[in-house]
Amino acid sequence: MATLPITIIGAGIGGLTAALAFARKGHGVEIVEQAAELSEVGAGLQVSPNASRVLGALGLSEALAGAMHCPGRIDLRDGRTLSPIAHVPAGDWARNRWGAPYGVMHRADLHKVLTDAVIRHPKCRLHIGRRFSSGPDESVTDALAVITGGRPQLVVGADGVWSAVRHRVPGALPPVFAGQVAWRFVVDASCAAPVLDAANVTAFLGPSTHLVAYPLDHGRRINMVAIAEGSDPGRIWDGRERSNDRAALLDAFRRWHPAISALLRAAPQMTCWPLYAVPDGRWSDGDRLVLIGDAAHAMTPFAAQGAAMAIEDGFELAEAVGAGDLPLGPILTAFESRRRIRLARARSRAAFNRFAYHARGPIRLGRNLVLALKSPESLGADLDWLYGHRSPGS
């Protein structure tokens, strides 16, 4: 079987998934990461069945089960009144319907599961604290050879929304501020007990704002993500809460239930992340460079599919490359075309959720009525196309 030397730029969730998927096919993989140590910023994330199925195919089911909490349901509540609107069943129902678990976990825990697997794999080699950069007259492969000692035949850009290699893809587009900011923080479950069930995922919906709460540590702590309109602070790296951020957050949620306002006011240090989306440009150069995950198609988090799409990308790219038959150009072009269809639908779902979550006035009342009239199972079935997706080879 032919094998390819492959270099992946970026050791985040998408890059590490791609590394394991390529190594599973027998390819040698070099992973170049600019951070001095491997860690994952942020807090909780949803691992939907389309993503957990891929991770299971990579042999990570046992490690995932030890770190992931599988809630019994996803509750939708009114942020002003705290009254229930609807819920989507999860737990055993999700596993039976979609053939893989729906869970929530800390981003750092998922990152560690992937990192540990990459470190153990003999076909993978990590280069930490090495920033990729290339001069105008220097090829990507020459620049990477300085770091890894060899020239790859395939380069995968998995280095996120501020990708350092995206500009080398003709037709790729830079990120655009989406007009919203996400505040992330973690509280003890006891602090959130007055407003939610710590065992389940809860999405509170409000005018131009929403708040999602995920259980962490099997319900002992709660990760919260509050999203509201905000200004663009420019390119930031650490996301630390600044002196005026808390006041802006409280103002955005000023019409919400007092218990939510009190929770936001008393919350510990937050991270504050402006939301960016990468418009629908090219992902590959049609030769030997391809982008995946946020580097290719960062989208707003209203469908909670950012990490899942990156996981699918990495796995399906490795399946498309297969045994390493050359030339790679047509393979990369076909991969991009197939994935673009699915990403377009995921973006549409995110846009619909943003409209529905942030509705106000009569539209808000109509939304609540429509959701209340649908059964939980019907709401779950609406996600069959998303959660039931089976990546080739999984």
Helix and strand topology:
Elements: E1 5-9, H1 13-24, E2 28-33, E3 44-47, H2 49-57, H3 61-67, E4 73-78, E5 84-89, H4 91-98, E6 103-106, H5 107-120, E7 124-128, H6 140-148, E8 154-157, E9 176-188, H7 189-192, E10 201-206, E11 209-216, E12 221-229, H8 245-252, H9 258-266, E13 271-277, E14 289-291, H10 294-297, H11 306-321, H12 329-357, H13 361-373, H14 376-381, H15 384-387
Parallel strand pairs: 1-2, 1-8, 2-7, 4-10, 8-14
Antiparallel strand pairs: 3-6, 4-5, 9-12, 9-13, 10-11, 11-12
Helix pairs in contact: 1-5, 1-11, 2-11, 11-12
Features:
alpha/beta, seven-stranded mixed sheet, 14 strands, 394 residues, FAD-dep_Monooxygenase_BioMet, oxidoreductase, FAD/NAD(P)-binding domain, FAD-bd, five-stranded parallel sheet, 15 helices
What count of helical segments does DSSP give?
Answer: 15
Identify the strand order in the major beta sheet.
5-4-10-11-12-9-13
- Subunit organisation of the chains: single chain
How many DSSP E strands? 14
Query: In terms of structural class, how would the helical and strand content be classed?
Result: alpha/beta
Fraction in helix = 25-40%
Please state roughly what percent of the residues sit in beta strands, choosing from under 5%, 5-15%, 15-25%, 25-35%, 35-45% or over 45%: 15-25%
Uncertain residue ranges: none
From the coordinates shown, what is the CATH architecture of the domain at 5-71 and 100-174 and 279-355?
A: 3-Layer(bba) Sandwich
Could you tell me how far the N terminus lies from the C terminus, measured between alpha carbons in angstroms? 21 Å
